[in-house]
Amino acid sequence: MLTKFFPTRLLGMAFAFLQRFQQRRIRTFSLLFAVGLSLTLAVSACSPSASDNSGTPQTTQAPSPATSNTTVRIGYQKASTVLYALKARGELEKAFAASGSSVTWAEFPAGPPLLEALNAGSIDFGYTGESPPIFAQAGGIPLVYVAYDPWSPKAEAILVPKDSPIKSVAELKGKKVAFAKGSNANYLLVKALEKAGVQYSDIQQVTLTPADARAVFERKNVDAWAIWDPYLAAAEAATGARTLINATGLAPNRGYYLAAKSFVDAKPDALKRVLDQVKKVSEWAKNNPSEVAKFLSPALGIDAPVLEIAEKRREYDILPLTDEVITKQQEVADTFYKIKLIPKEIKVKEIVWQGKLNK
Known about the structure:
Number of helices: 15
Subcellular location: Periplasm
Mean pLDDT: 83
Pfam family, one: NMT1
Low-confidence stretches: 1-68
Order of helices and strands: HHEEHEHHEHEHEEEHEHEHEEHHHHH
InterPro entries: ABC_SsuA_sub-bd, Solute-binding_3/MltF_N, SsuA/THI5
Signal peptide: 1-45
Family: Belongs to the bacterial solute-binding protein SsuA/TauA family.
């Protein structure tokens, strides 16, 4: 009995130690992101689900070392138009099939849990807005910026109810403003207040997810709401909300394609193949806003005409990170450090891919 029990006990102790270590790591990173996600959202994010092209849910497991050499793992969000469309069209699978490689997909509700999955080694490549990679870098996640999407400063704004007496950003002083903490809209709010001569600490900050913020905004429990498309377009259509200011001249509102450093180092050819296919779908989206709106409508639960408004005021492309783009992203990082959303200063240029996109 003893000879059988002793090894099992050692294994159990080792497993428990590793489990506690991983739990502490995830808790630390989750606190750093602090984006106002609900507990349910965070739990679902920690257990991402993948689906095949038919839409049937499947359990996604990290591939073994034996299969990782022939499998490219993509993390996506439904609101990330290009990757969602790339998955649905099956074109990436076709591009890799000739070399005997395969593709798996894992869906996430937001950028922060997507990047935690990248940190855990569950995915190789993904797309988020401008803020999540800043938090990820501050948290020590080994990721690389590989390209950017221009999106559009017109695709995010600070809204007020249609009958609100507030006419300028300066009038937000002392008022309740809803936004997702650590999001691109958070950055817009900071810069808009700064331009108007109002301290960030002079407003009543109400940090909520888009769905919760929409509810309190409609009930007029907040005075303003900083939000991005397509939620922006949906709120305008449903409530007649008035745009106080958009991000033009204040915030770039870009999106970024990101990859695990290990993937970039070990599989540069696979990375370029992924980016080639992203480029093709991006060009389709840029030239077909109506088709994109119809395609996204069932997945997002937003009417196609509303989505088309959002599509027509955003830009699509996949571009290399220039010094100008890196400088602007550094400004976002510096702003978040200044208002203590990240615990230390970071240098964005230290994690920018040095490879080149195919033309």
